[in-house]
Amino acid sequence: MTLSQFEIQDIDQTVLLWLDHLRIKTLIAMQQQLEVDTKHDVRDLVTNVDKDNERMINAKIRAFDSEASIVSEEGFGDQQRDMNGNVWFVDPIDGTMNFVKERANFAIMIALYVDNKPVLGWILDVVNNVVYHGGPQLGVFANHLRLDNPVNDTLSDGIVLLSGARLLYGMFGYDKIAKSALGYRVIGAAGPSFIRVILGQAVGYSSKMMPWDFAAGQVLAKTLGLSVSDIDGQPLNMLSSNIVLVATNRAHRDILTLHQS
Predict the structure, then answer these.
(1) pTM assigned to the model
(2) Which CATH architecture has domain 155-260?
(3) Domain 5-146 annotated CATH 3.30.540.10
(4) Which among 87, 121, 148, 158 counts the fewest CB atoms within 10 Å?
(5) Spatial CA neighbour of 71 closest among 8, 85, 144, 123
């Protein structure tokens, strides 16, 4: 199914309204006592806000797009086996550790793919009240400001963002990548890291991610002419974890070369 420009604009504006409400709801929850639990280990946190946000987003998607499937982090979505039709990706709080401990550097992310093609993505920077949104037919916006494509810098020209745990243990050539960049940073969340790359504040970002971590970022990054792949340069599998690499075209080539050397 192909959506018209009008339909895509309508979906974009609808989701922006959801996110405006979600932002207020999340900020209020931050002023209250959070209920914090762990999932796979003590560093894999989940809060009542993650769960409440996901329930709310998924309910709105099902009311708005009843035939769609939902891939979401906290277990309230579908057990999706293919990318046929409308597939929504939901990360209700991206960077939960940052949300709990820093109260900053976290995001809410939603994406829509149609028959495995990226259509729209939204990354809400809750604290700074900016939604990065758009897609191939609309362009990419920070709230109402249209963004230009980032400068196509090399790895040595800029800052690279990396997964801290994998950098610490020298996995995937991250140590060589960090040494070859002008500088490196560890943000600890996918959404804020994607934001820095699409704004041209970093030339690349790589980490192990689940589909809800990278779905929105991939839509926005590709729309802005950035390269998105796994660490071996292959297309991302939208229904499994990937070692994701998003970068300027030149930095992408530099990083792949280092990883493969």
Answers:
(1) 0.95
(2) 3-Layer(aba) Sandwich (3.40)
(3) yes
(4) 148
(5) 85
